[in-house]
């Protein structure tokens, strides 16, 4: 019976590059030949590649004796899989030093190239992700929504005109770079990425366009607020781990700004003027509203309803009837996919005064709804 073939691929030799030093290479060849195997049963080949790997093929049976002879001949410790777990730290040291490690698998002894292993795992994960995307119901539903928006058509007799897919504007990023407070907001690390920056800038733009008082020639004439008035309270519900929207308003207005999120972190924004944070759910927060103070509630992709967001407000005198609420509270909302149904109407059932798609916000969920103050 022919013994199984054992393929051994060794890590870079712990000396200088052997390709330019024939004498060292010959010594290495002689050490492997004389000390590792019996010449009568051995066939070997020296391969010079970018890692200086030594590939040795032999017809010897995988055994402890083979390991011991390699241990003495090559000066490296070879460990079978059964004991590999207890040598994790040594393996890590070998990986850092040699970019790989040696492992015995059944009747094979092979060199594990860490970089190639990572590349192989990435390829396997990419295949798994494609399979998941092909069969997952949630991904199918999202893909269907994207397809419907991308392939929306308008019929005019026999003519169908395709609408361009998902237009996107970078005007909010351009506007942010021109702000005097951009350096301070960047230093505080308020915005983790461009998407969050665009969302907060979109909220500010919606408030500025629909709720702030404008010149007589402006298209919106029912705004009542002023950015310089300290008698306005802004409540950013579900603001994230940093007070993104509230901080933007605190820097750009004279309003009293409050940021609420259960995952809010501590940071350098505690010293920002007119900014307060609450690390809690909006259902567990109570905000006192003084007489004649108007409130702007901003809900950007927050996981709650308009009713819960407004319920945190406690008015002086305890008057919370619908008319009083609508005269003193305005809401700007951009719902995420799972909470769109509970952010379509106010608690009294009133529809938004304005609803539009903001092309400056990346992503699919960018429908902005605005409920203005009642006169």
Overview of the structural elements:
This protein is an alpha/beta fold and 375 residues long. It folds into three domains: 6-116, no CATH class; 136-165, no CATH class; 171-371, Rossmann fold (3-Layer(aba) Sandwich). It contains eleven helices and 16 strands. The protein has helices spanning 22-36, 64-74, 88-98, 114-135, 137-150, 171-177, 182-187, 194-210, 244-252, 306-310, 322-328, and strands at residues 6-10, 42-44, 54-58, 100-105, 108-113, 153-156, 159-162, 232-237, 256-260, 275-278, 287-289, 294-300, 313-315, 329-334, 354-357, 367-371. The strands form five sheets. The chain has a seven-stranded mixed sheet. A three-stranded antiparallel sheet has the order 1-3-2, with no helix packed on it. A two-stranded antiparallel sheet has the order 4-5. Strand 6 and strand 7 form a beta hairpin. Helix 1 packs antiparallel against helix 2 and helix 8 (194-210) crosses helix 9 (244-252). The chain is globular and about 65 Å long. Mean pLDDT is 71; it is low at 1-63, 69-89, 98-111 and 153-165.
Properties at a glance:
375 residues; alpha/beta; Rossmann fold; 11 helices; 20% strand; disordered N terminus
Secondary-structure map with pairings?
Blueprint: E1 6-10, H1 22-36, E2 42-44, E3 54-58, H2 64-74, H3 88-98, E4 100-105, E5 108-113, H4 114-135, H5 137-150, E6 153-156, E7 159-162, H6 171-177, H7 182-187, H8 194-210, E8 232-237, H9 244-252, E9 256-260, E10 275-278, E11 287-289, E12 294-300, H10 306-310, E13 313-315, H11 322-328, E14 329-334, E15 354-357, E16 367-371
Helix pairs in contact: 1-2, 8-9
């Amino acid at each position: 019976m022919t013994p199984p073939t054992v393929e051994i691929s060794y890590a870079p030799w712990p000396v200088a590059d052997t390709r330019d030093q024939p004498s060292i290479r010959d010594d290495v060849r002689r050490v492997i030949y004389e000390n590792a195997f019996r010449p009568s049963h051995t066939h070997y080949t020296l391969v010079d590649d970018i890692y200086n790997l030594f590939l040795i093929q032999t017809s010897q049976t995988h055994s402890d004796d083979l390991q011991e002879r390699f241990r003495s001949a090559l000066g490296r410790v070879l460990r079978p899989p059964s004991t590999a777990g207890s040598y994790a730290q040594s393996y890590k040291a070998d990986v850092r030093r040699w970019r790989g490690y040696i492992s015995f698998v059944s009747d094979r002894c092979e060199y594990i190239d860490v970089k190639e292993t990572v590349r192989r795992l990435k390829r396997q994960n990419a295949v798994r992700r494609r399979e998941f995307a092909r069969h997952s119901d949630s991904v199918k539903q999202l893909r269907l929504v994207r397809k419907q928006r991308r392939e929306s058509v308008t019929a005019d007799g026999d003519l169908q005109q395709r609408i361009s897919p998902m237009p996107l504007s970078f005007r909010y990023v351009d506007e942010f770079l021109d702000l005097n407070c951009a350096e301070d907001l960047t230093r505080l690390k308020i915005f983790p990425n461009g998407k969050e920056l665009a969302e907060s800038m979109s909220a500010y733009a919606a408030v500025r366009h629909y709720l702030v008082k404008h010149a007589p020639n402006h298209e919106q004439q029912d705004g009542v607020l002023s950015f310089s008035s300290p008698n306005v309270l802004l409540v950013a519900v579900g603001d994230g781990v940093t007070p993104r929207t509230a901080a933007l308003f605190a820097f750009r207005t004279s309003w009293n700004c409050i940021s609420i999120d259960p995952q809010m972190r501590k940071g350098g924004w505690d010293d920002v003027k007119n900014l307060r944070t609450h690390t809690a759910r909006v259902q567990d927060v109570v905000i006192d509203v003084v007489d004649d103070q108007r409130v702007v509630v901003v809900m950007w992709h927050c996981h709650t309803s308009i009713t819960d967001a407004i319920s945190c407000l406690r008015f002086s005198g305890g008057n919370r009837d619908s008319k009083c609420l609508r005269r003193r509270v305005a809401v700007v909302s951009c719902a995420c996919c799972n909470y769109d149904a509970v952010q379509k109407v106010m608690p009294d059932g009133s529809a938004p005064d304005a609803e539009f798609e903001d092309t400056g916000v990346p992503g699919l969920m960018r429908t902005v709804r605005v409920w203005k103050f009642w006169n």
